[in-house]
Design goal:
Helix content: 40-55%
Radius of gyration: 19 Å
Largest sheet: 8 strands, mixed
Distance between the termini: 44 Å
């Protein structure tokens, strides 16, 4: 049977990491048991080591620990991949909790479709968030998709996904190291894979829950990420040297910022229930217009470590 590894990069979240690992340990069925799990500890202090050592003695499968002391999301993902030779790679973030049939569902869908990458739905949670922003934040950190398995036209993010390694994660550094601090390493990879005709699959039963940590369960953080998401299309076009496409995205973004921003301003003035949603759309538009490197938010690596430290 094809070997499968669950890969989890982590950065100073030992409590959340333990919950994530235990959710993998609780997977049901023959297809739900991975051959191994790889934890890439991206904290310079190696804060995940004790958690992994404790759970390693309980787990029904090997858990590999790799210390990646230089904070960076791409560096952590690449280092984890270097620790396993498994053909199927399932990514589970350290703030995600897998449902009992998560891995089996991903594997069954992949086998049925022969998809190159399979994604699953995410139930977002924002504990501790302001009540006025909670519904928006839970949608923001969640992921919705079709109600049935099948192919989808566009990929999602790397969290809660299953890759056929030989078709998608080739070489020692498949994740772009230039995205270490900003994120978007999966978008860069997916853009390259899409050009090669890779097939994206959706597994409706592969549920995970994502509980945003306190420093992320805030409107300011979500809108900063929304701005970064907005930058993506123009940045992708720029990397390929498609400057007419860059200009097109800038025009679209400027229009979105004006239209959605006006609506957002009205919503904030009247206390509208959807004010955060309209603001999200506006800042995504602004991101398309201000796609340049100097405007790129630093959301991962050292910047994320500092946010964690400030939050206590």
């Amino acid at each position: 049977m094809t070997r499968v590894a669950v890969v989890t990069p982590t950065l100073r979240r030992p409590a959340q990491l333990e919950i994530a690992i235990r959710s993998v340990m609780a997977q049901t069925g023959q297809l739900g048991r991975p051959d191994e799990m790889v934890i890439a500890d991206n904290d310079p202090e190696g804060s995940a080591r004790a958690t992994v050592e404790k759970l390693r003695r309980e787990a029904p499968f090997p858990i590999r620990y790799v210390h990646v002391p230089t904070p960076g999301v791409s560096t952590a993902r690449n280092a984890a991949l270097g620790e396993t030779e498994a053909e199927l790679i399932a990514f589970l973030d350290d703030d995600e909790i897998a449902s009992p049939t998560w891995l089996a569902s991903l594997r069954q869908t992949q086998a049925q479709l022969d998809a190159d990458v399979v994604f699953g739905p995410i139930q977002g949670r924002a504990p501790g968030a302001d009540e006025a922003d909670r519904a928006y934040l839970e949608r923001f950190f969640g992921r919705a998709g079709p109600l049935v398995d099948g192919f989808i036209p566009e990929p999602f993010g790397c969290g809660n996904s299953l890759f056929v390694r030989s078709r998608t994660l080739q070489g020692p550094t498949p994740f772009d190291l230039s995205a270490d601090q900003s994120g978007g390493e999966d978008d860069t990879l997916f853009q390259a894979l899409g050009g090669r005709g890779v097939r994206w699959g959706w597994s409706a039963g592969a549920w995970v829950e994502e509980a945003a940590p306190p420093h992320r369960a805030r409107l300011s953080y979500a809108l900063t990420r929304a701005f970064a998401f907005g930058q993506g299309p123009a940045q992708s076009a720029a990397r390929g040297g498609h400057w007419f496409e860059v200009a097109r995205w800038m025009v679209i973004g400027a229009g979105q910022f004006v239209v959605f921003g006006t609506t957002a301003a009205v919503q904030w003035l009247i206390g509208g229930a959807h004010r955060a949603d309209w603001t999200d759309r506006a800042v995504r538009g602004l991101g398309k217009f201000l796609w340049m490197k100097p405007f790129e938010p630093q959301l991962y690596g050292l910047a994320e470590l500092k946010r964690i430290q400030r939050s206590g």
